[in-house]
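Q: I have 418 residues here and want to know how they pack in 3D. Can you give me a structure?
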Amino acid sequence: MNIYVELITVITEIFLTCFFFYKCLPLTSIPYIEIIIYYATYALTLAIGTLFLSIIPRITLIVAVLLIGNHLLLHIPYSKLVYTIILFFTSAIIADILCAITLPAMGMQYEMMANTDTGRILYNSCSKIIHLIILLIIISLIEVKDEHIFSIRIIPLIICHIATFFAFDVNYHYLTNGGSLTKVTISSLCLLYINIMLCIYFEYLRLNHEKHEKDVLIAQQLKINNKFYTDMLSRQEETRALWHDIKKYTLAVEALVADNQINKARDEFQNIESAYEKIKYTVDSGNSIIDGILNHEINLAKNNNITINLNIWIDNNFSIDATDLYIIIGNTIDNAIEACSNIKDTEKRIINISLTQKEHLLLYEVNNPYIPDIKIHSKKPFHGYGLTNVRNCVERNNGTMTIDKTNDIFSISFILNV
């Protein structure tokens, strides 16, 4: 056993473990120093197990450290940890089996894989790359439910990893034809390093893309908030003007009725009604974020001849992130407006919105008529995120989402912890 070859294997195994557990478990909520200490302990355990223990005691020790360490560090139930650890080691076993089948098929002899340092390096490198491919597929299936997004994200990486196998094959044939052992070893390690860096780079790109999406949402939210405050100031002026003129309107109507000028009195009532119409669609729940979103949506609905009925009873403060509120409320009402816009009978274009708070629970419901056979394709900002992101926001806030379609009425309801 070459200690350097085995240590390289241990380092690669640590990377794969960190990568998989970081994606599957909430490590970001823990101070980095604690994470470093935990994985340093895991690395020491892995090194001791690889160098000094047989297979069964080694796996037992590693599983025990992962199970106890993650439970103490992250306070995650053992049931979930057991599932994650089993998934990791099962995929590792599958990777070893696939590697043991693939390398001999490419011409490498079993004796070389088992008894030579270069064979061990080639075998370990191929095995870890196969394991990395399997982990990437598992993580992508867990994170992404949209098949199109899944294909875009995972296919380029898999192609890179598959191409690496051909490079290993070239290395092997180069070695068997009298090539330099040192060059083959360095080349194999470089290939492994390149594949690891590719995964890190793709993860960096993904995080940047998510940050960009969130920035776009925040910018849109700020735009709506600015419009809300501008509209609020304007409506306050209109309200003050209305109250200032209400006595004048009342005296005018009384004079016209006393003079038996009923038609002119009716005209004055219409003037009062018109003035009231300008301010009656203002939402003032006490929460500026919700007010901004709802006032924005009410204006959109009004422009499409859609009536919105509101039932709001909430406190001023929430623990829910403003962006999550923007995605959940804005997206669902936008969808309702689009659905109603396809209905020809304007009298049936009615959206009912209920937003009530009961202690630490926020109950939110939207229902509207819709035409079942028509699909909605919108270019509005909210729609880029779809119900998948709405569902993610709900789950992030420990809530539930329910969809019902009965008698051509689409109803979506949420229960959120606030």
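Q: Anything worth noting?
A: The beta strands are 307-313, 350-358, 361-369, 400-406, 409-417. The longest helix spans residues 181-258.
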